[in-house]
Every structure is written in structure tokens, then in C-alpha cells.
Specification:
- Helix content is 35%, strand content 18%.
- The chain has helices spanning 16-33, 35-48, 65-77, 95-114, 117-129, 186-193, 280-303; strands at residues 133-145, 148-159, 164-166, 177-184, 221-228, 233-238, 247-250, 265-266.
- It has a five-stranded antiparallel β-sheet. The protein has a three-stranded antiparallel β-sheet with strand order 2-1-8.
- A hairpin with a 2-residue loop joins β1 and β2 (148-159).
- The longest helix is centred in the C-terminal third of the chain and has 24 residues, at 280-303.
- It starts with 15 loop residues before the first helix and ends in a 14-residue tail after the last helix.
């Protein structure tokens, strides 16, 4: 692939290797689009977690106002799982519609109890409060007996803030595709992608681990599941396999708006960009000033020379 890229066809041909290359290129462009935000978001999270270790000679007194503000905000935004409420749009005499609404409401109520919906929502709210964007998706989970589906389940799943990509756009209605990243082991790859899974190169390693022989168990494959609304197909691609997509599935859920997720929740949103803004950046100057004042108070307190008075007429004192 060379020359100017102006259309989707310019990213590759129709061969499987060209399709995989096209989608890996799209993921890379999306990476670059939000690279600055991800770097800032990671710094905010490190500050929230107090990842910076203090040295023995560091006597500076710190007040983590980000942690305090975030804990208050999380409790105000979300405290418990919602109670489903299904009703007919028009409250006319329709026994069948009323019964159907009751069935839907009870099904939703059971679904919320059947998996950790509460934990998923707490994670999304935390991502909204810290990196600035929270994301969840819906998953269809069938259970097979042989080739027959014996049980079907729908679950909401939390999407890690740094494992979500989308086609660059100013608003959600203009997004062409969304992608969800997942780290898979060799067994996971073989289970999901059969023979192709055994050919994938495990090229992902944690940043704090060296790529040595004893650390091979930490290696994973970063697989991107791309939901492309343009042709209503789902592509799974990975940098460790360039011969083609790991799988291509035509419209698996048949949803009206295709995407298996609602629009992301934002802490700070504007109409001209979908790139999130961590809330801490809005008041970080005041937070730094508060930390500086706390440090100066602590230094002055340590520098005080203690003095006292006593009644000299009482020898015992």
C-alpha cells in the first residue's frame, strides 16, 4: 500500500491480508487521534492511586484532593442498581401488551441479579470521573449442547477505558465503527478462533515486564473486535496475525443501530470533539496550590521552636 489515501479502498484490496491490514491501519489512526488524552488520563489515574513513591529524604506533606473529590463524586453519581420499569407506550386496554411488559420487566430484573451489573456500573462511573469517559457493551452469551442452543443470556460488560477505539468523529452519530480490545492467551485464541488461533503470535507484554524466557507466561495477543456499521460486519484482527482477519461475522445481533453499546458517558463533553477531558485538568492548578500550601504549613510547623512558661514559685514544676 502506497500513495495517497482518500477512500477506504485505498487502505487495501479485497484479499484477507489486505482486509486485516486495513483494519490494523484504522486502529492505529484511532490510537494517534486520542494519544494525548490517554497519556494525560494515565497521569491522572497514577495521581489518584498515589503511584509515585516517596523517598526516605522526602518529607513533603501531600493532600490528595483528587482522591477526596472523586470519592464524593462517585457516591453522588451512582449508589445502587436501577429497578427495571417496563410499560406500554399507550395505556389502552391491551392484556397481551400488559403481560408482555411484565415478562420483559421480570427478565430484566433477573438479568441484573444474574451477573455483576452493579460492579460494571461502578467501574464505568469511575472511568468517567477519572479518565473522563466510561464505556460498557452488551454481550450475547449462548449455551450450546452439541450444535443446539439450550440457553441464551444477555450481559452488560465493562469496557476498560484504554481498550476502546472508534473512527474519529465529532459526535456519536457520525462514528463509522467501534472496536473493543481484549488480551487473550493461547488457549483463548484456539477456543475462539479454532485453527487460526494457534498461528497467532503472542506479541503483547506488560510494560513493567522484560521480554525474557521466564516471563513468557505474561505474553498475550491483543485482539480487536471491530463493529463496522458501514457493511454491518464484525471483524476480529490482531497485530500478531497479518494473513487476514481472525474472523468475519455478518451482523451477529441484528440491532437497529448495529453497535452493541450505547454512546459513552462523558464527564466533560463538547459538541466539537469526542476526545474526553479528565475533570482533574479543570482544577489542577488549584490542587497544586493546595498541595504547596500544605507543604509550607508542614515546614513552618516543623521549624517552630517550642517554648513554655511556668510558675517559679512552685519548685515541683
Amino acid at each position: 500500500m502506497s500513495g495517497q489515501v482518500e477512500t477506504v479502498k485505498d487502505l487495501g484490496g479485497s484479499k484477507p491480508a489486505d482486509v486485516a491490514q486495513r483494519w490494523l491501519k484504522e486502529i492505529d489512526l484511532s490510537d494517534q487521534h486520542e494519544k494525548g488524552w490517554r497519556e494525560r488520563a494515565q497521569k491522572v489515574i497514577d495521581l489518584y492511586r498515589c503511584e509515585k513513591e516517596k523517598s526516605e529524604n522526602d518529607t513533603q506533606q501531600r493532600f490528595n484532593i483528587l482522591y477526596a473529590n472523586t470519592e464524593v463524586l462517585k457516591g453522588a453519581l451512582y449508589s445502587q442498581a436501577p429497578a427495571p420499569d417496563c410499560r406500554r407506550r399507550f395505556l389502552d386496554k391491551d392484556p397481551v401488551g400488559r403481560f408482555g411488559a411484565q415478562v420483559l420487566q421480570r427478565g430484566l430484573s433477573y438479568s441484573l441479579d444474574a451477573y455483576d451489573f452493579h460492579g460494571m456500573m461502578k467501574a464505568c462511573v469511575e472511568d468517567m470521573a477519572l479518565p473522563g469517559r466510561g464505556m460498557a457493551r452488551v454481550k450475547y452469551v449462548p449455551t450450546f449442547s452439541g450444535e443446539e442452543v439450550v440457553y441464551e443470556e444477555v450481559q452488560c460488560e465493562y469496557v476498560e477505558w484504554d481498550m476502546f477505539r472508534y473512527s474519529p468523529a465529532k459526535r456519536w452519530g457520525k462514528v463509522r465503527w467501534v472496536a473493543f480490545g481484549e488480551l487473550l492467551t493461547r488457549d483463548d485464541l484456539v477456543e475462539q478462533f479454532k485453527d487460526v488461533g494457534g498461528k497467532v503470535n503472542l506479541d503483547w507484554m506488560p510494560k513493567d515486564k522484560a521480554d525474557t524466557e521466564e516471563n513468557q507466561l505474561f505474553k498475550r495477543a491483543l485482539v480487536w473486535t471491530i463493529w463496522n456499521k458501514t457493511d454491518r460486519k464484525v471483524y476480529c484482527v490482531c497485530t500478531g496475525y497479518k494473513d487476514g482477519p481472525l474472523s468475519v461475522t455478518p451482523d451477529p445481533l441484528r440491532l437497529e443501530k448495529f453497535f452493541p453499546c450505547p454512546p459513552p458517558i462523558y464527564d466533560i463533553s463538547t459538541t466539537g470533539s469526542m476526545i474526553p477531558i479528565p475533570e482533574y485538568l479543570i482544577y489542577q492548578d488549584l490542587a497544586m496550590q493546595l498541595e504547596e500550601l500544605s507543604t509550607r504549613i508542614a515546614v513552618l510547623t516543623d521549624a517552630l521552636r517550642r517554648r513554655g512558661v511556668y510558675d517559679s514559685s512552685i519548685p515541683e514544676l
